Structures are given as structure tokens and as C-alpha cells.
UniProtKB/TrEMBL annotation:
Belongs to the glycosyl hydrolase 10 (cellulase F) family. The keyword Cell division does not apply. Keywords: Carbohydrate metabolism, Glycosidase, Hydrolase, Polysaccharide degradation. Pfam families: Glyco_hydro_10 (PF00331). It comes from Flavobacterium piscisymbiosum. Residues 22-364 form the GH10 domain. It catalyses: Endohydrolysis of (1->4)-beta-D-xylosidic linkages in xylans. It comes from the Bacteria. Its EC number is 3.2.1.8. This is Beta-xylanase. PROSITE patterns: GH10_1, GH10_2. The active site is at E258.
Length: 369
């Protein structure tokens, strides 16, 4: 008979439960547990648990996860007859192990397609691709993944449909078909349309038309995902609120799916800026390479507080708020729209320390638990 060392058992149990919710722990996910899920996007290395400090921060603060890149078409479906679920399986296992809400990103998106997909030219081939792609992926994770971005970024800024490889080959029916295929593969999973700038009035109208169209054609759509790649001064709280109200009036959930707030100058905002000009390495475009001045840190904290106050006001309509990354060091905003800058868009700094913005989000809930 095998003798179990009680000391080892205790240590092992402690290690295994390090992510399970503990009431006494002060964290985002615990503070907001009665309001909505608090999520984060995970990089490949975070999914593989390569950094113990990041791993425990993720477990402590967040109860929902999205894969930042590895579930996109080019990674899971690199060739016509080949899927690669190695990292996607690890991502789902990570969420299951830690009892997290698992969001799938993304099934149909014009970007980060595998090269072979870009070459699809006719409707028969594209229809076959969509059926195989959506059915295979959604069925594989049936009952494990809680919600999917079925279609990502299908709209132009004026609310019209983007001329993607999907629209070009299939016409607008591809949108309804995508939602129908996903629902057929997993009737219980929540299905979202996901996009950015959804607070802009013209784009908002485009989303409203889209949701109505999908519903009218018998498709199942459960939510609108507003990415929330925002700035310190825009979009306005009024427009964000109008969008929450407009989308939920359609009978769907609203999720904020990729929240971050840039503090850096944007080349397109500069009057007379020539966007072809090379901004890389220009110190004016990278004003805080070492540290964020306290005045901007305070502005960021105030902006996050205002936004979360609004989210709390409409918590019945909001299913999830997910940050696009765990900490500033991993943010895509360090490399977009200009490569190699130092941005500060999230609640944790590069050393994984909570910023003033973290405190301001937490303070909204203090004394209210
Ligand atoms: O995988 C390659 C690696 O092999 C190579 O060495 C390296 C060199 O640049 O590039 C790696 O690919 C990068 C990929 O992320 C994975 O890290 C790409 O260059 C880079 O462009 C890509 O960026 C991602 C971007 O989507 C692509 O469009 C960002 O990390 C990711 O945060 C961003 O996420 C999107 C959402 O999916 C949809 N909404 C907008 C959001 C921000 O753009």
C-alpha cells in the first residue's frame, strides 16, 4: 500500500488551490463578483504558464480569459486539412483548472487568416471553409468554451459592411450563416459580434442593423462585444452609455472585450500629420520611455474610475469586462500604431504592480461588498 505523506499532501493541496476563489483576498474579480466577470487576454507564454509571478496575478485578479492570438485562424487552422489545437487546448485547460469563464476569440475575422484562406476566391469554396472551420472548432470545445466571438470587425467606420474576403465571396449572407453554424455546433454557447469604435454613432447604427438582420434571418446572437480600445479623452461617457443602452435594447448582452486606454499621442490626431511619415524613434511620439508622470497616472486613474462607474450603473446589461492584457509590458499598444514605444494602458505595470488606476477601480467597490 502506498503511504501518503500528510505534509506533502498539504503542500500539494495548497499549490493546487492557489487560484480558487478565496473570500478574504482583495482582488478585482472578488470586488466585482456580483457585477460582471473581470477578464484578461492571455499571451501564448501566459497560457503556457511560463512566468510564475504572472500566473499567480492572473489567478488572483481575473475570472475570465480570452486568448490574445492563439485561437485566431492562422494559428488553429494553418492549412486546409490541418488544425493545430496544441495551444488552444492548453488555454481551455488553464481556464478549466482555474474555474474561469472561457471566451473564444475569434472564428471569422478578415485579419490573421492563414495564407491559404486569403486565396479562397469563390463562394462554393468559402462556404465549405466556413462550415468546416466553425463546426470543427466550436464542436471541439462544446460545453467548455462559454462564449465565442463569431464574427470580428465586419463593419467599416460608417456602419457599412467591410469588403473582406468573406463579403467579397459570399455577400452579406455570410454573417447570418456564421452565427447559424456556430449555434448548430453548440446550441448553448453564447455568440457575440465583436468590434471596435462601437461608441461612434454611425458604427453603432451598423451594429444595430446587423443584430436585427441576424435575428430576423433566424440566427442566434447573444451579445455585442465592444472592444474598448480607448483614449484618455475619448470616446465620451455619453456615447459609451448610449451604446450600452442601444445594444441591450436589442435583447442582447453587452461585453467590453478588449479594454485598454492609450496615454500616448496618436499620429492620426496630429493636425496635418502625414501618416506616411516615419514616426518610429521620434521622441515626441514616445514621451514617457522610462516612467509615466504622476499627472498622467492620475488622469488614467480618473478615466478608469469614470468608465467603471458607468459599467456599474449598467451592470445588469453587462456580462463581462476584459482587459486586453495582464500588464503594461505585454500590451499590443507598445507596438501600435508606432512600433517600439512605451505605453501604460492597463491596471498593472510591467513589474506586475497595481497602478493608481487599479486603486481607483477598486475604490468604487470599497465598503460595498
Ligand atoms: O507570431 C509572430 C512571431 O513568430 C514573430 O516573431 C513576431 C515578430 O513580430 O510576430 C508574431 O506575430 C505577432 C502576433 O501578434 C503574435 O504575437 C504579430 O506580429 C502581431 O502583429 C500580432 O498582433 C496582434 C494583433 O491582434 C494582430 O492583428 C496583437 O498581439 C493582438 O493584441 C491584437 O489583438 C486584436 C484583437 O485580436 C482584435 N481587436 C483588435 C486587437 C488589437 O489589434
Amino acid at each position: 500500500m502506498k503511504i501518503i505523506n500528510p505534509y506533502l499532501l498539504a503542500i500539494t493541496t495548497l499549490l493546487l488551490v492557489n487560484c480558487s476563489p478565496k473570500k478574504e483576498v482583495t482582488s478585482l474579480k472578488n470586488s466585482y463578483k456580483d457585477d460582471f466577470y473581470i477578464g484578461t487576454a492571455l499571451s501564448a507564454s501566459q497560457i503556457e504558464e511560463k512566468n510564475a509571478a504572472e500566473d499567480s496575478l492572473i489567478c488572483k485578479e481575473f475570472n475570465a480569459i480570452t486568448a490574445e492570438n492563439i485561437m485566431k485562424s492562422m494559428f488553429v487552422h494553418p492549412q486546409k486539412d490541418k488544425y493545430d489545437f496544441t495551444l488552444a487546448d492548453k488555454f481551455v485547460a488553464f481556464g478549466e483548472k482555474n474555474k474561469m469563464f472561457i471566451h473564444g476569440h475569434t472564428l471569422i475575422w478578415h485579419s490573421q487568416l492563414a495564407p491559404w484562406m486569403e486565396k479562397i476566391k469563390d463562394s462554393t469554396e468559402m462556404k465549405a471553409f466556413m462550415k468546416d472551420h466553425i463546426t470543427t472548432i466550436v464542436s471541439k470545445y462544446k460545453g467548455k468554451i462559454n462564449s465565442w466571438d463569431v464574427v470580428n470587425e465586419a463593419l467599416n467606420e460608417d456602419g457599412t459592411l467591410r469588403k473582406s474576403v468573406f463579403l467579397n465571396t459570399l455577400g452579406e449572407s455570410y454573417l447570418v450563416d456564421a452565427f447559424k453554424l456556430a449555434a448548430a455546433a453548440d446550441p448553448k454557447v453564447d455568440l457575440y459580434y465583436n468590434d471596435y469604435n462601437l461608441e461612434e454613432p454611425a458604427k453603432r447604427e451598423g451594429v444595430i442593423r446587423l443584430v436585427k438582420k441576424i435575428k430576423a434571418a433566424g440566427g442566434k446572437i447573444d451579445g455585442v462585444g465592444s472592444q474598448g480600445h480607448w483614449k484618455l479623452d475619448s470616446p465620451s461617457l455619453e456615447e459609451i452609455e448610449k451604446s450600452i443602452l442601444a445594444y441591450s435594447a436589442l435583447g442582447v448582452k453587452v461585453a467590453f472585450t478588449e479594454l485598454d486606454i492609450t496615454v500616448l499621442p496618436n499620429p492620426w490626431d496630429l493636425k496635418g500629420a502625414d501618416v506616411n511619415q516615419n514616426f518610429e524613434g521620434n521622441p515626441k511620439m514616445n514621451p514617457y520611455p522610462e516612467t509615466l508622470p504622476d499627472s498622467v497616472q492620475t488622469k488614467l486613474a480618473q478615466r478608469y474610475a469614470d468608465i467603471f462607474k458607468l459599467f456599474l450603473k449598467h451592470k445588469e446589461k453587462i456580462s463581462r469586462v476584459t482587459f486586453w492584457g495582464v500588464h503594461d509590458g505585454q500590451s499590443w499598444l507598445n507596438d501600435w500604431p508606432i512600433k517600439g514605444r512605451t505605453n501604460y494602458p492597463l491596471l498593472f505595470d510591467t513589474k506586475l504592480q497595481p497602478k493608481k488606476a487599479y486603486n481607483s477601480v477598486m475604490q468604487l467597490k470599497e465598503g460595498k461588498e
